Amino acid sequence: MTRTRSLASGLLTLSAAAMLTLTAAGGASAAPAPSDGNEAPSVASVTLDAGAAADYWTPERMQGAVPGDTLADKALERGNRSNPALVEKSKPSSTKATKGKPTLAQSANPVSHIGKVFFTLGGTNYVCSGNAVTSTNRSTVATAGHCVNEGPGAYATNFVFVPAYDNGAAPYGKWTAKALYAPTQWASNGDMTYDTGFAVMNPDAKGRKLTDVVGGSGTAFNQARGLTYTSYGYPAAAPFNGETLKSCTGTASNDSNNPQFNTQGIPCDMTGGSSGGPWFIGNGPDGLQNSINSYGYNGSAVMYGPYWGSVIETTYTNAAKS
């Protein structure tokens, strides 16, 4: 039986309630009316205390952050359209390499605009990956939907982005989020088709905006299927330790196990913690971003990512101009 191996932490979703109060270092997020995907998707703004969130993430807390596999599993439980028989919850991939055995994921030098995402949900600290993208506000980070919202459930708090993280070093500092965005289809139903989120970051202590400091990737939407991609991330579950950047390159093919997700996969065995890491068209980190690391299956070393169509483009547009 083919079973899923989830990679990342949970997306934020809003219930039908008009307001959700966050208890960690943050404010309140409004729950706008759902959209059918033809209008601007529902989004929520979470106001965070920049100093509190940055100070919260000590080296010890970063080191102890949990890869978000369990949150992605819970999102699948709560209403995803996959066959429940295909879901394996909170277990490591059976394809993981043992010590000394080569992996498909290759070591990569740090990239200024790619980094680790840290956040808190349900009193637990989690880690994902993310990438700074070009935007009108010069402050937007792309990641997985399940790394900003449980899908459905709570929104993340203490959300920070650490560009070019490498063995504990944070050469560009820790950037705190002031707003989180996800498609309604993710926030309301945890639909893996739309597992993408965007975070808008606060300026740093010098008043500089994120992409003015670290640069950013262009984005592409509604592209042809079957392109060649290079994905990046910080896999933290065994056999990796999350301390250095990894990458995979390959030609995308459709997910035949759950075709309703409309996702594509490339050969890659990165594990939990890599969720939300960027997919670039072509080879290397200089191409246009066109997806993110989302999920995989036990017994198959393939990483799947959502197709970035019009709904995700609208979500990006709303985040980028905020």
Describe the 3D structure:
- The chain is of the alpha+beta class.
- It folds into two domains: 3-96 and 114-216 and 310-320, Thrombin, subunit H (Beta Barrel); 228-305, Beta Barrel (Thrombin, subunit H).
- It has six helices and 19 strands.
- The protein is globular, with a radius of gyration of 17 Å.
- 56% of the residues are buried.
- Residues 8-41 and 83-98 have low confidence and may be disordered.
- Residues 78-107 are annotated as: Disordered.
- Residues 1-30 form the signal peptide.
- Keywords: Signal.
Outline of the structure:
This protein is of the alpha+beta class and 322 residues long. It has six helices and 19 strands. The strands form four sheets. It has a six-stranded antiparallel beta barrel.
Looking at this protein, list some descriptive labels.
Thrombin, subunit H, 322 residues, alpha+beta, 19 strands
